[in-house]
Design a protein that fits this description.
single chain; alpha/beta; four-stranded antiparallel β-sheet; 18 helices; 10 strands
Length: 446
């Protein structure tokens, strides 16, 4: 597999660009299918979160792959290619694996060490599998990335130090508008991020919580989980008037436009009697809360842009260094295993050819010496097979070792040339048609 990653994130693009590039509705699915249908791509997966859009692809040509994936990202995001290109990053082969493993460990997150990215990676793989755009290569890669992420969280302190975006955002709210405990809160949305926000508010001491969602049934299910003694549903249309009765609003919907308007916030503030400012935490991309709310008095708006600037709470340098070492070790091991796996079909085909030669020669022996007794025939058969096995043992073991090193693919080519192996026999072992690429197998997310 020749892995290529093309993407943009909070590290390379301002929030305004990320907001315009956000993929919503059916757009991610269409982008995934278009990427997989490209002549340069064998498999594709899309990691699409509030602060990153990344296409992962198995490509047969680097430059053509970069050009095609960049064009697809521009087309489906609606951002002009020339503007988008200045914010894109590209990683290839081992560097691409290193990037994915770093993402899985939370090293590339806005809040370093947060564990929510593991669920997002799992969802990205499941989506690619459901849409039949991921095959064996990406499945193995993403499964390993998930294992590396879990290892980092279990073996280092990054798990305790790292926070979710919700927790980090609420810390910023508490710093500017007072403790969360005892506040009256409203959560707009009932997806995974909103559900996490609601649960975090309850754990933080909020006892009066409103849940508003475009689909009332999802809001009702969330209320059932949290408990009707703490939470209750609110009609989405009544959110503007409810702003005057709450202390904190968290919004994270998939809406394409503004959900909380500046004029509604201004009207709510004019009727509030509380001493603390009305706090709004906007975790949506594109943004749910009108950016003009930042200009209002007695209002604290914390959004993804301000969170990126307030990147103060991060895990200790020691934990980051340890996770970085884990990532480096895992990338080396994964690369070696992948390179070794590439030569395995050639070794199997070589042994199969040797077995066929032995069988043919023993058949010729039978025709020439038909009166040979069974004991002698068995001894000769065993001797011939033992000689062939011994002759092949050292070169096949050594070629596997050499193939695991960088640049080891050339040893498989040399083996095929030296023994004049039939390409069809090698491809039959790997399940790849001659001149073609592996067909995506099934497989669920573990």
């Amino acid at each position: 597999m020749s892995l290529l990653v093309v993407g943009l994130s909070h590290r390379t693009a301002p929030v305004g660009v990320l907001e315009r590039a956000a993929l919503t509705g059916e757009v991610p699915t269409r982008l995934l299918h278009d990427a997989a249908a490209s002549s340069t791509v064998a498999e594709a997966a899309l990691l699409n979160t509030c602060n990153r859009i990344e296409l992962y692809a198995d490509v047969d040509k680097f430059h053509a792959g970069v050009a095609e994936l960049s064009l697809l990202l521009a087309h489906h995001s609606g951002v002009d290619l020339e503007e988008l290109t200045s914010h894109l990053y590209v990683h290839y082969e081992d560097r691409a694996v290193h990037h994915l493993f770093s993402v899985a460990c939370g090293l590339d997150s806005m809040v370093v060490g947060e564990g929510q990215i593991l669920g997002q990676l799992r969802d990205a793989l499941a989506k690619a599998q459901d849409e039949h755009t991921a095959g064996r290569g990406l499945n193995e890669l993403f499964q390993q990335a998930l294992r590396v992420g879990k290892r980092a969280h279990s073996e280092t302190g990054i798990d305790k130090a790292g926070q979710s975006l919700v927790t980090f955002g609420l810390e910023q709210v508490a710093a500017g508008a007072g403790e969360i405990a005892g506040k009256r809160a409203l959560v707009v949305g009932a997806g995974s991020m909103s559900s996490l926000a609601a649960a975090t508010l309850v754990r933080s001491g909020v006892t009066d919580l409103l849940i508003a969602n475009r689909t009332p049934a999802r809001a009702e299910r969330l209320v059932e989980i949290l408990g009707p003694d703490v939470a209750r549903t609110l009609d989405l249309a009544k959110v503007p008037e409810a702003l005057a009765d709450v202390d904190l609003v968290i919004s994270c919907t998939g809406a394409a436009g503004v959900v909380v308007r500046a004029e509604d916030v201004a009207a709510a503030v004019a009727t509030r009697t509380a001493d603390t400012p009305l706090a709004l935490l906007d975790l949506a991309m594109p943004r749910d809360v009108d950016h003009a709310v930042h200009e209002l008095d007695s209002v604290l708006l914390v959004d993804l842009e301000s969170l990126s600037h307030a990147h103060a709470a991060s895990p200790g340098a020691g934990d980051v260094d340890e996770v970085t070492r884990i990532v480096a070790d895992e990338v080396t091991a994964f690369g070696a295993a992948q390179r070794a796996a590439r030569i395995a079909p050639t070794v199997v085909a070589l042994r199969a050819m040797a077995s066929d030669v032995v069988a043919a020669e023993l058949g010729r022996l039978d025709s020439r010496l038909p009166d040979l007794d069974e004991r002698s025939r068995a001894e000769i058969t065993q001797t011939v097979r033992r000689v062939v096995d011994k002759l092949l043992h050292a070169p096949t073991v050594r070629v596997k070792q050499l193939a695991a090193e960088p640049g080891g693919a050339s040893y498989a080519d040399a083996l095929r040339e030296l023994f004049d192996l039939d390409p069809a026999a090698v491809h039959a072992v790997s399940g790849t048609p001659v001149g073609g690429r592996p067909q995506p197998p099934g497989g669920g997310v573990r």
